[in-house]
Design a protein that fits this description.
Layout lengths: L2 H12 L6 H6 L8 E6 L2 E11 L3 E2 L5 E16 L2 E8 L3 E4 L4 E17 L8 E2 L12 E2 L2
Parallel strand pairs: 1-9
Antiparallel strand pairs: 1-2, 2-7, 3-8, 4-5, 4-6, 4-7
């Protein structure tokens, strides 16, 4: 992210006003395109609408925290022990450890909240080819 974009994103996120997650989610329709709703220290709090599959990717230097606000999220994981999938219903949280290859999906759609260090790409540090329906971003400001 360019310094100006990062500053704009942080300025939006740092506004000293409460943020309604319902209103924030209603403000956009794009899937797999996270919005920054606030910041905590050097972390962005991002929300996203998701449906279908994301892509296999890895964050080499950071864990990734997920909270399912609505719907059900599945996260396929690949690590030294093999491959498995965790299923997160509404209200569930899960942290993908750094360096773990993972692929989120939501066959029926979901709304999620994520904590990630500011500047973290939504497609990780290593990933397969990015499909057209996935936004490779460090998060967009709410409009």
């Amino acid at each position: 992210m360019e310094p100006e974009e990062l500053a704009d994103s942080r300025q939006q996120a740092d506004a000293a006003q409460p943020v309604s997650l319902a209103a924030a989610l209603a403000s956009f329709s794009e899937l797999w395109s996270p919005r920054v709703v606030t910041a905590v220290n050097d972390y962005d709090v991002r929300i996203a609408k998701v449906a279908g599959e994301h892509l296999w990717h890895t964050h080499d230097h950071t864990d990734e925290f997920f909270l399912v606000l609505d719907g059900e999220l599945r996260i396929a994981l690949r690590d030294d022990e093999g491959e498995r999938t965790v299923t997160l219903p509404t209200g569930s949280v899960f942290t993908v450890p750094r360096g773990t290859e993972h692929k989120p999906s939501a066959p029926a759609g979901a709304s999620i909240l994520m904590f990630e260090p500011t500047g973290t790409m939504s497609v990780g540090d290593r990933h397969e080819e990015i499909p057209a329906h996935v936004d490779a971003t460090t998060g967009h400001a709410l409009t």
